[in-house]
Write a structure and sequence with these properties.
389 residues; mainly alpha; 4 domains; 25 helices; elongated
Length: 389
């Protein structure tokens, strides 16, 4: 008998006995087999299974869940931690506190989630200590629990880390703040995104804190559009294409298409048009994606195919100056020799190098252009790259 098939099926006569068996025996091996199939089951099926297992729990058998704590799954985390919290007494709270301090990473991850339901000041320090764990599930659960405990010290510490010169420490702070779920951190996160070498990674975290589309026509309008551009730029290489569904990019693009053209909107729409057309025209980009993702990409491409490109060219050029947050995207889109060459006389040496590189790829890097660019580069590392062009 395929017990997992019964557990994930539609017939209560099939799944109820299996759910009861897992909880009441408890059948650790069967739970472990279930978790091993996480990557192969649809999310809604895993949600159904979690509800069925939770329904099989009661005050008499809930402690059997301790047997499962060494088998971590983000899909059954909420059911396990919330059920333990629902029936917890002082002894259970103390046991979970001991697990948080001394358990395996899997056990600690469940324990951290438990303390997002149970307020306990003794959990503060161990939660703080694990909030930047390399285990992302553990780190996320700790940040969420600290948020529930209203730990302002941990929140302010993360804001300070955003200013770090260490890009990985900066990125870990972004992930903490997103898990902490305080939208007041948005402005600081956007600032970090603009100055980080991991801009695409940071941008891809922001929609989990706040919908980018909801920020349009607010004081963070341009920052939201910039994050959109970074995400578009990072699709496939750094960010799964399927995220365009979760990030509600169709709606955001539709909103921008209906708005009065501005420089940031022009950059975002033209960049998206180029990228989604590339996905549709080249099957290898979507080969491993599911039907929903392919349909969403196709729908976005159709939406963008209707835009009048000429309407956005003038606003696009408004962002062609070295201090624009959108300058690197604009340079890739414009491909205009004279416009690109005009940047060689600026002060931003990274922009100058980018301009020289683009001119080289266009076959337009004349000795005069190269000399102009080199004359304005003082950084030896950048100059060595420029000289090689």
């Amino acid at each position: 008998m395929d017990l997992i098939k019964n557990l994930t099926g539609k017939d209560p006569k099939g799944y109820e006995p299996v759910a009861s068996r897992i909880i009441n025996e408890p059948d650790v091996e069967l739970f472990e087999e279930l978790v091993s199939k996480d990557d192969y089951l649809f999310d809604f099926i895993k949600q159904n299974v979690a509800q069925r297992l939770a329904k099989a729990c009661n005050k008499s058998n809930f402690k059997n869940l301790f047997k499962f704590l060494n088998i971590y799954s983000p899909y059954y985390d909420e059911f396990i931690s919330s059920t333990l919290a629902q029936y917890a007494d002082d002894d259970v709270v103390q046991k979970m506190l001991d697990i948080l301090k001394n358990g395996t990473e899997s056990e600690q991850t469940y324990a951290a989630s438990f303390f997002s339901y149970i307020r306990n000041e003794d959990a503060l320090m161990p939660l703080r200590e694990r909030a930047y764990s390399e285990n992302t599930d553990l780190a996320t659960n700790c940040a969420r629990a600290l948020s529930k405990l209203e730990d302002i010290e941990a929140y302010n510490n993360a804001l300070s880390k955003l200013k770090s010169k260490d890009s990985f420490e900066q990125y870990s702070a972004v992930k903490f703040l997103v898990a902490y779920q305080n939208p007041d951190a948005l402005e600081s996160i956007f600032k970090a995104m603009k100055n980080s070498p991991m801009s695409e990674n940071i941008a891809a975290e922001i929609p989990f804190l706040c919908s980018l589309n909801s920020l349009l026509n607010t004081e963070l309008n341009d920052e939201a559009i910039l994050a959109f551009c970074y995400i578009i730029n990072g699709l496939v290489e750094l960010i799964p294409v399927s995220q365009v569904i979760d990030f509600e990019f169709y709606s955001m693009i539709d909103t921008m298409l209906k708005a009065t053209p501005t420089g940031p909107i022009a950059v975002a729409l033209l960049l998206a048009k180029e990228k989604f057309n590339l996905f549709v025209e080249n099957e290898e980009y979507l080969f491993d994606e599911d039907k929903n993702t392919k349909n969403e990409v196709n729908d976005i491409n159709i939406l963008l195919s209707k835009m009048n490109i000429n309407k956005y060219l003038s606003p696009l050029y408004e962002e062609l100056y070295e201090d624009s947050d959108f300058i690197y995207f604009v340079m890739e889109l414009v491909r205009d020799e004279e416009a690109i060459a005009s940047l060689l006389s600026g002060e931003n040496q990274t922009v100058i190098l980018k301009a020289m590189t683009l001119l080289k790829s266009m076959g337009s890097l004349t000795p005069e252009y190269k000399a102009t660019g080199l004359a304005n580069i003082t950084d030896e590392n950048i100059k060595s790259v420029a000289l090689a062009l």
